[in-house]
Predict the structure.
Amino acid sequence: MGAPREEVFTALNDRRVLRQCIPGCEELTDIDDDTFGVTLKLGVGGIKGTFTGTATRKESKPPESFSLVLDGKGKVGFVRGIAAVRISDEGASSRVDCDADVLVGGAIAAVGSRLIAAAARKVTGDFFREFAGVIGARSWSVGGAGEASGDSVE
């Protein structure tokens, strides 16, 4: 991410920025200092639905890391998980790494893990593409361990 680590950390914890960047986000409200209330409209394969739930920050160590505990449900199923976010310096830029462990159940889980994984990669790429624009990052790329960057802008 072509922006300083402190700026990236602050933006990743700003409700207004997140609301703009999360694909399908219809509502993002502060419940308390560490918890957001979330309403998302998402679809995987032919199954689409609205999910409501929470995202709670844990283990926040500005500007280097935080975790998000996710809990959401809708008519087509549920999503629960935890995401560990690490932000490191790379010269004048920063690197964002996110490891997530997610459990999906209900009708949405019936589409299979391969489709869910593909949808998760697309949503992640869309999020960071929008995020880079919102914070005015000079460059960005999205990729995973062992895979080539899916998107990049210099």
Summary: Confidence is low (pLDDT under 50) at residues 145-154. The first helix runs from residue 5 to 12.
